[in-house]
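Recall the central idea of this unit: under ordinary conditions, the amino acid sequence of a chain determines the structure it adopts. In this exercise we apply that idea directly, starting from the sequence alone.
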Amino acid sequence: MTEAAEPAPGTAIRESADRCPGVFSTHEAKDGALARIRLPGGRIRADQLTTLAQAAAAHADGFLELTARGNLQLRGITDVEAVADAVVSAGLAPSSSHDKVRNIEVSPLTGRIGGVIDAGPLTAALDDALRADPAATSISGRFLFGVDDGRGDIRRRGADACAVARSAEPVVADILVGGVAVGSVGGVPGIVEALISVAAGLNAVAPGAWRVRDLGAEDRHRLERLVAENLAPTVESDEDDVAAPVEPIVGWFDQDDGSVLLGSVVELGRLPARLAEFIGAVESPVVFTPDREILICDLGEGVAETVVRVLAPMGLIFDANSPWARLSCCVGAPGCGSANAPVRKDLLAHVEAGLPVGDREHWVGCERRCGSPAGTHLSVQATPDGGYDRRRR
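Accordingly, the structure predicted from this sequence is:
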């Protein structure tokens, strides 16, 4: 099970329980227990990554899976308690009650390259507020917060509650509910309060709804009005309807402070534990993006050259032209009992055969389309007869 695409919108109340896995409540897949570690903004320290890599090697299948929300997953877990202990010791799980509510996507390059603001402090404040709020435990594990530093990369991803920075001094952000701007607010505390009010409002308008997209038109308008009551009107600009370009963050990038950021990907979005330990040994901050990229940040030029020289032969891909910069997939069979095909095996064969790859492709084993990208992409879906259906979504 990976982070799943949602069913068609308009169903306010879900008939089944939210079974999103966490650290303390894992999912039992065909290949063993699965735990999801939520990383607000995809950010992780080197020592934390090392701890997770060691846990994956000792108690799981030896890989860290990258998800479509910039989180990490461990599959095939043989000792759930040992993995939970490792995650807690690394400071990556706030509590069993708040484990699943911290889905926060953030502009990956924020604070390092471009953007209207450094969204890091705002993200930390949102995470702290969610951890401290007893009511936040009612938020669905599928509900998604977004923090866009003004470049437009996160607003296009369809977060349920998204703040899009409009100015830095003072800090002002537009608040989006399911992608619709409903008003603006200034100051970090005010922005955080507005974002959390979307989740609280969703629960008030339609108890049991997982996401804003579950709402019918009437309930959605009620939610938008409820959130907008405490916001200033949004000032429209010519840039509001301009989609941010979607380019892989893969390769060598110069940060605004003169340091180097290295963007990379791995085959199948699976980071081998040993490679993860080597990345941790660099002792630099790491960011996992919603496009399953791995960013190693704040490097000196000499260190960056060494990282490329040592880690590229180990499987870390720094070439933006690699097909793996545009490919992703679910686990497929036999790891998932719902899959119609061994998706990973078939995708590897596709790449090894040199067959063409579109701008963005996601391969899946069934109609659930788990792990699908938020933006437009080519969905390659396995069919019961052993073939694949290719469809633009």
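The longest strand covers residues 161-168.
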